[in-house]
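Lay summary. Proteins are chains of building blocks that fold into shapes, and those shapes determine what they do. In this project we predict the shape from the chain. Here is one chain we studied, written as its sequence of building blocks.
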Amino acid sequence: MIETERLLLRPHIVDDFDAFKAMSQDAEVMRHIGRGPSTADEAWLRFLAHFGRWQIQGYGIFAVIEKETGQFIGDAGFSNFHRGLGANFDPFHEAAWVLSTAGQNKGYAFEAMTAAHIWLETQFKPKKTVCIIRPDNKPSIKLASKLGYQETGLGRFKDSDVLMFERTSL
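And here is the predicted shape, written in a compact code that computers can read:
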């Protein structure tokens, strides 16, 4: 578990599912993720994948919990999603974040991902991390820049253009 000033980052637990499903079915939250709102079974399969990432990779996506309320407000962390984007992308830890409407516009994504990067660098000492963001997702592009990511080019994933970013470790 990682604790920041306002957040707890921890592996998901079954009790997170209802809030995770609600976030996954929110069209406004999901519009930049590259898929529309999830059905209940799609949300369940994506939720279960969080558990498997930790088991197989030894790292994964953290549940982001608002300390003041104890509310699940999103996901933040790293994975290898096997996207097929090439040798300059696929072998590296890929950063990922998504916050529910209740968690947005409060600086939580920056706080969570800063803590997740510190954890990853302590545990794995990666040479670099990567991420992809859809070109119309201005808030995530701004966050990636604030986290130290630099755009490396345009890619294509699931029939959509994506901007590819990398961040070299300090």
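What the prediction tells us: The two ends are 23 Å apart (CA to CA).
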